[in-house]
Design brief:
By secondary structure, the protein is an alpha+beta fold. Helices cover 35% and strands 16% of the residues. The chain is elongated and about 75 Å long. This is Transcriptional regulator, AbiEi antitoxin, Type IV TA system.
């Protein structure tokens, strides 16, 4: 049986600069190539037991960024709890001052800060707690960032504080890389990403209460004349906190952009049994609804039972699967258009 890989306690569950660890005699260059470590970027390594998610990608990027850089856009949205905003394989989006020149790095998407009224800096609520690369942040009151989820299996006791000169980006014990606030992250996402993906992220930020329609309207007004300002306002107008999944957000936006009237998310319908069921997407004036995959079960039975109950209440319900949304949206659009037309809608 092979011996366990060499993993010093000070590096357990950490993301660190390999050159620092070698210089301090914690590991050798040969040991860094073992299964104990995951190479994330040039000279950036992580404990291989860490989850390979976008937070890990942000931690790795933070160790090679100047102090002025901030995690932004969809990457910041991920750190604020929107897990579908980015994956481990996605680029990390960062903002830097316009006067700064940051060389290209694999897996890094760099954006300039813009004027002094940039939403990301004017309303940022997060701050650094140190001065160098890889320092972390907390909330204004010094509490932990909501994206930090400490492990529950006793790992924390196994972590020793890093020694002087060892730069680490430790999400669990010190916070997260400095990030723009949720409202600014929504604005950046609306400007930088394609609309279908951007609306889904903004929907989630609204649904979890990280931002509000009032805050989005304010940041849109303050930045109306900046590049991307009109696009951000348009994306915000398409957002709906009632959406409960990225697929639901995508379907709603695609239907609206195809010329259909805007549906209501989570419209309540009282059925014959007395229960109140909530439709995924609905046009109440025409009693037409779309039900997606049965992914949001609620009291009143399974997916088919819900459709039957709604039909008994006089609703025309069209089931849409994820496969059809991806592969046959034109067919879905024709069916919804025909259903609305049969119930009196005229384009």
């Amino acid at each position: 049986m092979p011996p366990p890989p060499h993993r010093p306690g000070v590096l357990a569950w950490q993301v660190f600069r390999g050159s620092d660890a070698i210089r301090q005699g914690l590991v050798t260059e040969h040991q860094l190539r073992s299964s104990a470590w995951l190479r994330l970027r040039h000279d950036v390594y992580a404990d291989a037991r860490l989850d390979r998610d976008h937070a890990l990608a942000c931690r790795a990027a933070a160790l090679r960024l100047p102090p002025e850089a901030v995690v932004a856009g969809p990457s910041a949205a991920y750190l604020h709890g929107v897990e579908h905003a980015a994956s481990f394989a996605d680029d990390v989006h960062v903002l830097v001052p316009r006067t700064m020149r940051l060389g290209p790095q694999r897996g890094l998407r760099v954006h300039s800060m813009g004027p002094a009224t940039s939403p990301s800096y004017a309303s940022a609520r997060f701050r650094k707690t140190g001065g160098g690369p890889g320092t972390a942040v907390g909330q204004p009151d010094g509490g932990p960032c909501p994206a930090v989820r400490p492990p529950s299996d006793g790992r924390r006791a196994a972590v020793r504080p890093p020694s002087d000169g060892l730069r680490v980006a430790d999400l669990r014990t010190a916070g997260v890389p400095v990030a723009t606030d949720p409202t600014s992250a929504a604005w950046e996402t609306a400007v930088w990403l394609e609309p279908l993906r951007a609306v889904g992220i903004v929907d989630s930020l609204l649904r979890q209460g990280a931002t509000s329609r009032e805050a989005l309207a304010d940041v849109a007004d303050r930045n109306a004349d900046r590049p991307g300002g009109r696009r951000a306002r348009w994306v915000f107008g398409l957002a709906d906190p009632g959406a409960r999944s990225p697929a639901e957000s995508e379907l709603r936006v695609r239907l609206v952009l195809s010329g259909l009237p805007r549906p209501a998310a989570r419209h309540p319908v009282r059925v014959a049994s007395g229960l109140v069921l909530h439709t995924d997407l609905a046009w109440p004036a025409y009693r037409v609804a779309v039900a997606q995959d049965g992914q949001h079960a609620e009291a009143g039975g399974g997916h088919l039972d819900r459709i039957a109950s709604l039909a008994g209440a006089g609703w025309l319900v069209l089931p849409v699967t994820g496969r059809r949304l991806r592969q046959d949206f034109p067919g879905v659009l024709r069916e919804v258009r025909a259903a609305l037309g049969a119930r009196g809608w005229r384009q």
